[in-house]
Each structure stands twice: as structure tokens, then as C-alpha cells.
Amino acid sequence: MKKVLLAALMMGATLGAQAQSEWFKNVKFSGYGMVQYQASDQDAKESNGFNLRLVRMALEGRAHEDFYWKAQMQINGNAFDTKADGKKNNMTIRLVDLFGEWQKYEFFKVKAGQFKRPFTFENPMHPITQGFMGYSQNVSKLAGFADRTGEHASNGRDIGLQFQGDFLKNAEGRNLLHYQIGAFNGEGINTGDADNRKDIIGGMWVMPVKGMRIGAFGWTGSRAGVGEKNRYALSGEYTQNDWTFRTEYIHSQGWNEKHTSDKADGIYALCIAPIQKNKMHVKARYDLYREANSWNGFINDANQFVGGAKTLYEIGADYLFTKNLQINLEYARVNDRTINSDKHDYNMVDVELDFRF
Asked: β-pairing, 345-356 with 280-290?
């Protein structure tokens, strides 16, 4: 861990020194951490413990006036704890972002490298401002976090090329339309294209009033060893005066990693309401995911159990000590029909301390 921090600081110092040149301008070193305690009373799988959910360190800046770049590393897992067998818990360190974007024109920008897939509103959101103990299940399973195709965990990212822009300004100078489309390897981060076929992902949304977005997304592609995947998402969001309302439905056609189901879908709906503006909030989320597009599990023709729906009913609150330090508390009642058991219901509690630097 010390070596990782030292390397990051050395990288920051090196680029900081170069920031005075004409090529590198406004170089910024930043990051954040998320420390988590989580407990569950799931039958036969009771658990509780502390976890380093996420630590990220990033460098970003501009080259000339029209070119923006970013490099970001991620660390998660417990590096310092030791298991009962004497072995250390796993800690992963990986590059999550490395891209550059030409931003000369507001209506036409070009991004290349490794970055967030242009699919759903929630996927590109910051993990802290996203608002809950984790991204919704449908985004996690169908946007490349813990994807149902078995792709290694990629935090919703891939390697590729993307075009995007905003246009059609109203009388107030606010753009009413946004578009984004890109071609990607389809294998996730830090991985080459295994089947030489590209994933095409895109979306468009309208912004009829300030704070509102209504969008649609599409995704067609494949993954080596699994086959084709075709997905779409319908999204809506309203954020104004520290209130947030957001909902997204995602549908997927294409086999999962175990080839037990070729369709899946999910929906979430959430509200975050201020008790004290920019200081304290209460929140609630309905979060549903169906791995086989089915409510109840079933035995397929190959005598395999295929799970049904998993639903989380969540309530919580957060408090911001400062803009860079906050605490979050969340309770979830879970109905899990993905397991072959008659005990589907259990409870979860999540507490997080989040900080930025």
C-alpha cells in the first residue's frame, strides 16, 4: 500500500512540475475514499464486517486549450487484515480511467481510451453522489460492473472511441439535446478484444426543463465465449434545489455466463430529499433485478436452477460534515428469489464514511 501511495505521489509531483509547460495546463491531483461497514442476516450466510469499499486517485488536466485528459487508479479490498488461515485478504489495484477528449466544439467532442460506457444515467455518476450503498442491480449487471456475461469487474468501463455533444440551445442558452455514441472492445477494462467484434453503445436525451433529463440508450455487441448481447435502457431524472428523482429500466437479450437464461431486466426508482439543503438528506430506493426475466426461480430443461427476482427496499440518510466529508446510513429489506430456498427475505445494514481530497 505504501508503494502504491508513493508511486501516485511521485506521478503527481512529476506531472505537477510539467504543469508549467505549454503542453500541460491546470494539472490536478485528486481522489476519494469510501470506508464501509455492512451486515446481513441472510439465512446460513450471516455476515458483518468493515471494508475499504473504494479508494481512487486521479490526475487530470488540459493539453493546449481544446484537449482534456485523465488517468485514474483504483484500490479496494482489505490489505492489512489477516484471515483465520493466516493469509491476507485480497486487495486489488487497477487502472480504471486513461483517456483524452478533444473538446473544441460543444456539439461535437471526441473521446478515446478507457472510460465509462455511454449507457444509462447512473453508470457515469460518481460513487459518492450516486447516493446509495451501491449502484442499482440492473446497472451493475447490465452496464459492466459485475456483468451477467461473466466479464471481469470493470466499473462500467471499456476501451474504445466515443463521439458526444450538446446542442439546440433555448432562449436561456441551455442546451435541450444531448447525444453520445461509441465503439468498444466489449471485454471491459485493461483487456483487448477477444473476438474482434466491437460493441456499439449510444444514447440520447432531451432536457425540456432545467434539471430534467429523459433519455434512451441502446447497446449491441458480443462477448467471446458467451455470444451476442443486445440491450436497451429507458431513463428519467429530475434534480433541482437539492432534490433528486431518478428511475431507469434496462432490458437485456443474450446469454448469461452460465448459459442458463437469455433474457434479463431490471428497474429502480429513487428519491433523495433534503432535510437541510446541502447538509442532510433522507432517501429511499426500490431496486429490482430479474436474471431470467422471471419473478420466481425455476428448473430448466438441463435440470439447472435458474434464479428469479431480487428486490431491495431501501431507506437511508446522509449527513455532510463538510463538502469533502460525509456519513451515510442505510437499511435494506431484501427479497431474494435467486437462491434455491424457501427463505427469501433478509435484512441488510450499511454504514459508510466517504471523503474527498
From this structure: unpaired
